[in-house]
Each structure stands twice: as C-alpha cells, then as structure tokens.
Amino acid sequence: MGMMEEVMSKANVLIEALPYIQKFKDKIVVVKYGGSAMLDERLQQDVIKDVALLKLVGMQPIIVHGGGKEISKWVGLLGKEPRFVQGLRVTDADTMEVAEMVLGKVNKRLVQMLEQIGVKAAGICGKDGGTLKCEKKYANGEDIGFVGNITGVDTNLIETLLVNDYIPVIAPIGMDEAFCSYNINADDAACAIATAMNAEKLAFLTDIEGVYRDFEDKSSLISVLTLAEADKLLASGVIGGGMLPKLQNCIDAVKDGVSRVHIMDGRIDHSLLLEFFTNKGIGTAIIGSENTLYENER
After folding, report:
1. Is 293:224 a contact under the CB 8 Å cutoff?
2. What pLDDT is stored for residue 1 in this prediction?
C-alpha cells in the first residue's frame, strides 16, 4: 500500500465511524473489563485508550472490572488453594480480605492509566454511596462464603460522576443490609449497573471471540443474535461451561432494557473500537429483535 492509499484508508475508517459516533453521543456504555486483557500490559493500555476515545467522542463510558486471576495469585501466596463452585469463587473471610485489597489495587491502577491519558476518572467500589446492595449468594444451595447476589443498585454516585465528566471505574464489592462486605461476580455487577443506568451498550471483554453455534467450528461465530435466537440457543444445550451464565446474563440485561450487549475478544488489539465503530464488528451483539438492527445491518 502506497503512502496515499494508507492516508485515504485512514479517512475511510473515520467516515465509517461517523454514524456510530453520532448515534451514541451522550449515551451510556458499560465496559466489563476482565480476562487476559487485564494481565497483558500492552492490551491494558489498548483497552484504556479505547475507553478514553469513547469518552472523547461524546459517549459516557463506565468501567466495571474484575480481578479474578490476580485474586487467585494472592490467595495462592497466602498458601490457600483457590476454590470455585459453578464458576463462583468460594470466599471465606481471609479470601474476602484479599479480594477487596486486590480489587482496590486494580481499580486505582485503571484510574491512574486513564488520568495519564488526560481523561478524568474516579474509582469506586459498590460500597461507595451504597451503590451495590446485595445478599448472600448460594451455589445450588451450597454456602460459598462472602459471595454477593445483587439486590439493588443505587445509581446516585455513578450519575454524579458522569455529570461531572468523570469515567466511573467500579470494583464489584457490595454490602448487605448489615453492612457486611461481599465479593460479587463482575459479570453480574456489570449487568446490574448497565440495567440500572439504562445503558445503550454493555460490552464484555472476554477470552473468547464471541458466541458460536458450534464451539468446535470457528466459522460458526454469530455476529448478531436476537433474544428469540439466544433463548433457542440456550435451550438447545450447545452452549457450555463458563459461556452459559455469561450468555444468560446478557439475555437478562437486554430483556431489562439495555439496548445491545456485545461479547468480544479482549485479546484482540482495540476490540472495543472495532466492535463499536465498524460495520462488520468482531464479536457477537445481542439485541432485542430484528427491529433494533442498525441501518447498515439490515
């Protein structure tokens, strides 16, 4: 590609992004940040730049982050074996303490990176302003310790931050009625926050490319999935493992008013921008029905 073609291709990219920038101006987008994209320094920088760009073109991004792999590392350093039941971390008092410390560290690191780029960010957890209210969560009746099930979201503090031009960065820790601390699954927290904030988009950065009709067949990636199709896919039993609760979460979020949920591979450079600003996109978008397709998707 010659110099001129390269410059022209950049112009085309910007023009392709224009209708999306117009459509999502002032809209709330929630980014659930987790998986390998959190562990790799370069990918971390990419994600943070993407979120900063969303902010600078007029959207209102909110980051909800996990820190699972990092928590497991520190739990291991304490000489404890991380245990999971149905994908949920068994959280005793010691593990809860570690989780809160690690999530606090991750939270402030993300804030630091956003501030470094020149956008205002404020890190909170679900305890702040009583943002995430929860109760004890059981895994099929089994007591798994201080794991929280969200019972309510108070959006006051998040709205205050957005109005004052901050990107809220939220760690998934909440309190119950007795003000006990609970570790909350970050996917659950992202869905609950996106729903409560009536978000236009909820984007999951994960370690898979999206949703497949057949996981073994990489050509069966689904670009757009309506609620009816998603329900059918769940009922068919082809969705396995960790994807099952994630997909169920996404379906619930769309049913509860989030316009569109994206599942995408956070290991790909700038996956957020590719999914949000290009006609093709790269992951799977879950929408209410055919009526909510964008013009270029019809």
Report:
1. yes
2. 63
